[in-house]
């Protein structure tokens, strides 16, 4: 079994804002960290990598040039037998779930960001997942992240509400 912590749209650094302590704790405890884009700065990626677990990330539309040139726009990661597709911007709302499931064949889940709206749905046997944002909720009901438990090709996602960042 492997534990995967998933965040997106952190937009850090921004003023004195930082990740909520509960988020940092879950990230440190994970076997793998996934970031679905809009880290914003290379400095924050370095900070995330310093937490310990390996980090897999994709570029977001708000990322500085060093991130946009150094990170893929999409990728597939595999852990404990589970293949997970990643992309930042999943495109228009209409047809999104089916489009993502088709875009990442043989994946048990697809993680995306950009909307800041959490999503945990299943389409054609594929989990379609958006962690929301731990730092910038916008129109979402609260700050959030995802924790995934992978056992072989079986994946169990759990949306984790977070307190507002300080």
Number of domains: 1
| CATH architecture descriptor name | 4-Layer Sandwich
Catalogue the unreliable spans. none
Annotation field: number of helices: 4
Provide the CATH top-level class. Answer: Alpha Beta
Shape: globular
How are the strands of the biggest sheet laid out side by side? 3-2-1-9-10
Give the distance, in angstroms, between the N- and C-terminal Cα atoms.
Answer: 33 Å
Structural class: alpha/beta
Written as H for each helix and E for each strand, in order along the chain, the element string is: EHEHEHEEHEEEEE
Helical proportion? Answer: 10-25%
Assigned CATH superfamily: Metallo-dependent phosphatases
